[in-house]
């Protein structure tokens, strides 16, 4: 692949050394580096030996055997690493760390291949799993030619990281396809998406009206091949201004249907329709992101120095949510000397910051949760536990009517619970073959509702004030 030509083995060795250190607690030895470098260039043991002053037999019998076994563990992903398969394994490692290698100094206007990168692209550190999601997204972009894709999910589940990883892979595979890749981060509800886009593309405007700006943006979209990410879109949902939302809706109708070959990827805690009140069914694909699968989450914990059979339980308790796992592992190191077992002996659930601030927003921001949705969540929190079965839809409605005295139509309840599902606030269980759907809550959300740390849960949709710090 073209983009591998510039890869520098010394930089790859640095990354490999970091990995080896994490896994084994030691750095690569000089003789091992010599062997890796020689193998990278396709040299045999004799050549490597004569270039380095080591004895060929020593390299082959003493160094190589142990090195390949160790590298199989560290970077093999289940496939043994040998001299001949070292380069593909290193390329895979390089691919995973592409930004560190090639574009780690990304600034506004930096070029990768023929693609100009602009905006506040986040730096990606270690990244695990998500192969299925990435290949689905690539298919939506390259094969199905979708113009607009929304990645939704709770705070901290990994939307931003996934979008950044996706860009990284697209850039690596097709560095010359897009003219611009632009990353726009929405910081707060007062951000103006139009201005941000106009500035990002350096479009000159002669007239400030929204119609004019929309027109110019679409023209630009038709003329250039672009990949655009709008990250943190839910923040725009805090704008009360109805007109502004309609303007955004119009823009997205054009972006998703217009005559162009570009793609806009949006990350949002809320489904797009809830942010811009789309009145029309937009041809927008969405991907609801759940936690990491167990294998990936396990690698994440192992690399953070957590081991043992209790790790599985830790992953399950946090539903594979990477930011929750990050915080939990920091805490386990800090308070329990890195023992997951001891953590469970003092069994407690602590909610991480990102999920917590999302829940503050859901319960605190007026208009986000209806009274029915709020009551459903409270009822589920009070009536289920980690070990109890989920509750059937019909029983939830009955409980709302009888216990809470809430007059609620079936249609209203269905809509309410669908929205909770879309926002990943409830967990859904469908028995295969049968129609019945049951609902429960993940442990951290249940705990938040029961503890209600900021007194936001049991308030009705009256005027609520939450501090700015919570919203960010
Ligand atoms: N696939 C992943 N592998 C490793 N860490 C991840 C992964 N996805 C997310 N994280 C970590 O979890 C945290 C939250 O991720 P982020 O993408 O910011 O979530 P979101 O955008 O959904 O709020 C970050 O610190 C990030 O490094
Ligand atoms: Mg994010």
From TrEMBL:
It comes from Nostoc commune NIES-4072. The lineage of its organism: Bacteria, Bacillati, Cyanobacteriota, Cyanophyceae, Nostocales. Residues 8-87 form the vWA-MoxR associated protein N-terminal HTH domain. Signal peptide: none annotated. This is Uncharacterized protein. Residues 127-173 form the Orc1-like AAA ATPase domain. It comes from the Bacteria.
């Amino acid at each position: 692949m073209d983009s591998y030509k510039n890869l520098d083995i010394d930089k790859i060795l640095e990354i490999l050394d970091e990995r080896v250190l994490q896994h084994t607690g030691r750095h690569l030895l000089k003789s091992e580096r010599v062997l890796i470098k020689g193998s990278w260039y396709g040299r045999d043991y004799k050549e490597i030996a004569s270039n380095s002053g080591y004895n060929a037999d020593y390299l082959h019998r003493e160094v190589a055997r142990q090195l390949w076994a160790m590298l199989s563990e560290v970077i093999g992903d289940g496939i043994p690493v040998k001299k001949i398969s070292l380069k593909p394994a290193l390329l895979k490692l390089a691919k995973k760390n592409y930004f560190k290698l090639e574009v780690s100094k990304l600034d506004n206007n930096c070029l990768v291949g023929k693609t100009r990168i602009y905006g506040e692209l986040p730096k990606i550190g270690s990244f695990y799993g998500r192969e299925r999601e990435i290949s689905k997204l690539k298919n939506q972009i390259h094969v199905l030619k979708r113009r607009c894709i929304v990645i939704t999910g709770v705070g901290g589940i990994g939307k931003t990281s996934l979008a950044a990883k996706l860009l990284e892979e697209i850039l690596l595979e097709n560095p010359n396809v897009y003219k611009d890749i632009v990353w726009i981060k929405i910081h707060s509800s007062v951000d103006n998406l139009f201005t941000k886009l106009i500035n990002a593309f350096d479009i000159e405007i002669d007239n400030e009206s929204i119609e004019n700006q929309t027109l110019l943006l679409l023209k630009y979209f038709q003329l250039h091949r672009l990949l655009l990410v709008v990250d943190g879109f839910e923040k725009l949902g805090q704008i009360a201004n109805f007109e502004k939302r309609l303007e955004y809706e119009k823009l997205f109708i054009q972006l998703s249907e217009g005559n162009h070959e570009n793609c806009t990827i949006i990350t949002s805690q809320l489904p797009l329709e809830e942010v811009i009140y789309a009145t029309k069914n937009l041809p927008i694909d969405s991907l609801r992101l759940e936690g990491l699968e167990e294998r990936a989450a396990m690698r994440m914990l192992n690399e953070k120095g957590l081991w043992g059979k209790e790790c599985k339980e830790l992953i399950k308790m946090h539903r594979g949510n990477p930011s929750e796992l990050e915080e939990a592992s920091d805490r386990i190191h800090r308070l329990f000397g890195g023992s997951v077992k001891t953590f469970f002996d003092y069994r407690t659930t602590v909610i991480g910051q990102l999920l917590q601030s999302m829940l503050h927003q859901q319960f605190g921001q007026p208009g986000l949760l209806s009274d029915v949705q709020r009551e459903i969540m409270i009822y589920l929190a009070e009536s289920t536990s980690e070990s109890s079965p989920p509750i059937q839809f019909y029983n939830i409605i009955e409980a709302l009517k009888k216990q809470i005295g809430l007059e609620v139509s079936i249609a209203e309840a269905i809509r309410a619970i669908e929205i909770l599902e879309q926002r990943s606030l409830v967990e859904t269980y469908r028995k295969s073959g049968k129609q019945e759907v049951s609902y429960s809550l993940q442990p951290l959300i249940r705990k938040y509702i029961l503890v209600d740390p900021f007194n936001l849960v049991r308030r009705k949709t009256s005027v609520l004030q939450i501090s700015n710090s919570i919203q960010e």
